[in-house]
TrEMBL record:
<feature type="region of interest" description="Disordered">
    <location>
        <begin position="340"/>
        <end position="359"/>
    </location>
</feature>
<comment type="pathway">
    <text>Amino-acid biosynthesis; L-proline biosynthesis; L-glutamate 5-semialdehyde from L-ornithine: step 1/1.</text>
</comment>
<keyword id="KW-0663">Pyridoxal phosphate</keyword>
<dbReference type="GO" id="GO:0004587">
    <property type="term" value="F:ornithine aminotransferase activity"/>
</dbReference>
<dbReference type="InterPro" id="IPR015424">
    <property type="entry name" value="PyrdxlP-dep_Trfase"/>
</dbReference>
<dbReference type="GO" id="GO:0042802">
    <property type="term" value="F:identical protein binding"/>
</dbReference>
<dbReference type="Pfam" id="PF00202">
    <property type="entry name" value="Aminotran_3"/>
</dbReference>
<comment type="similarity">
    <text>Belongs to the class-III pyridoxal-phosphate-dependent aminotransferase family.</text>
</comment>
<keyword id="KW-0028">Amino-acid biosynthesis</keyword>
<dbReference type="InterPro" id="IPR005814">
    <property type="entry name" value="Aminotrans_3"/>
</dbReference>
<keyword id="KW-0641">Proline biosynthesis</keyword>
<dbReference type="GO" id="GO:0055129">
    <property type="term" value="P:L-proline biosynthetic process"/>
</dbReference>
<protein>
    <recommendedName>
        <fullName>ornithine aminotransferase</fullName>
        <ecNumber>2.6.1.13</ecNumber>
    </recommendedName>
</protein>
<dbReference type="InterPro" id="IPR050103">
    <property type="entry name" value="Class-III_PLP-dep_AT"/>
</dbReference>
<dbReference type="InterPro" id="IPR015421">
    <property type="entry name" value="PyrdxlP-dep_Trfase_major"/>
</dbReference>
<dbReference type="InterPro" id="IPR049704">
    <property type="entry name" value="Aminotrans_3_PPA_site"/>
</dbReference>
<keyword id="KW-0808">Transferase</keyword>
């Protein structure tokens, strides 16, 4: 057997089959390119589901990690460490917010945002205990934990994992009327992706995000923007919300915050909102660890230059134009997205031009 076949066979035998990867075994990577165990090179258009916004092996990020590895990597939050305050300060500034609650994975950050919104609802808004509701959008993807899949509309994500966590209401993505009708006095938050990633890089209708912002402000409801996939330069702006001039009450960040080097995530909001937590009410052993903070600080410094956002916008426009030419030939059905967060849908060979595969 080849090196590729051997590695895949071993993985099939000894790892759970919760993924079905492409038959490629990566051995090294640099920039936008990966090399497999056979020496073949591939252009990585997946970019770690947006975790690799700065490419594989970015020297600034690798050097930051190496320097921190020699000093201290983990203290737990039982102690302060000399990278933590700077990380929280710089990330809050990048987001035009005041406070940061660091975690590790995107799903952890979403769960933290849910807990924050509920606690804020009970302690600040005055919602009766156990009655808080959070509105989410159909076709969402926010993670894989039991609570998060409880408000997924993907049958595959939910199958055989019940009973599910209550307290969520689902409305169609992009539908302001449905959102308005779903709001009650017990609604504490609206949690949405400014661009839906796993649903197919769906950009909402113009005016939707400003409409969400207006409705949530009117009804004293928190607007939570899950920018784990769309944020930190991917779409040509630091945050996808910026394309419509919207600032939410809370950002949920992850993936690219760790530069593809270490897992880093965070909830970023105002002191009034994140200030609802008291010592012991939430935590994470690895959240905000020195190594994560060191790498994330370098990510933030890179984003503050604006160069990466500009480059993503330029490359995204170029990609959109070139894929658009293919659409004219009938092989590509549609091209959508913003910046480097793009997707093209293709037509099977048997589908006639001008007709979708399902049409």
């Amino acid at each position: 057997m080849s090196a590729t076949e051997t590695a895949i066979a071993s993985a099939e035998a000894h790892s759970a089959h919760n993924y079905h990867p492409l038959p490629v075994v990566v051995a090294s990577a640099e920039g936008a390119w990966m090399t497999d165990v056979e020496g073949r090179r591939y252009l990585d258009l997946l970019a770690g589901y947006s975790a690799l916004n700065f490419g594989h092996g970015n020297r600034r990020l690798i050097d930051a990690a190496k320097a921190q590895l020699e000093r201290v990597t983990l203290t737990s939050r039982a102690f302060h460490h000399d990278r933590f305050a700077d990380f929280c300060t710089r990330l809050a500034e990048l987001c035009s917010m005041e406070m940061v609650l660091p975690m590790n994975t995107g799903a952890e950050a979403v769960e933290t945002a849910v807990k924050t919104a509920r606690k804020w609802g009970y302690r600040v808004k005055g919602v009766p205990d156990g009655m808080a509701k959070i509105i989410v959008a159909s076709d969402n993807f926010h993670g894989r934990t039991t609570t998060i899949i409880s408000f997924s509309t993907d049958p595959e994500a939910r199958a055989d994992y019940g009973p599910y966590t209550p307290g969520f209401e689902i409305v169609p993505y992009g539908d302001l009327t449905a959102l308005r009708e779903a709001m009650t006095e017990n609604t504490v938050a609206v949690l949405i992706e400014p661009i839906q990633g796993e649903a197919g890089v769906l950009v909402p209708p113009a005016g939707y995000l400003p409409g969400v912002r207006e409705l949530t402000r009117e009804r004293n409801v928190l607007f939570i923007a899950d920018e784990i996939q769309s944020g930190l330069g991917r779409t040509g702006k630091t945050f996808a919300c910026e394309h419509e001039g919207v600032v939410p009450d809370m950002y949920v960040l992850g993936k690219a915050l760790g530069g593809g080097v270490v897992p880093v995530s965070a909830v970023v909001s105002s002191a009034d909102i994140l200030g609802v937590f008291k010592p012991g009410e939430h935590g994470s052993t690895f959240g905000g660890n020195p190594l994560a903070c060191a790498v994330a600080l370098e990510v933030i410094a890179m984003l503050r230059t604006g160069e990466y956002q500009e480059r993503a916008a330029e490359l995204g426009d170029h990609l959109h134009r070139e894929l658009g030419l293919l659409a004219g030939g009938g092989a590509v059905e549609a091209v959508r997205g913003r910046g480097c967060g793009r997707v093209s849908t293709s037509r099977p060979p048997w589908a006639p031009a001008g007709r979708s595969p399902s049409g």
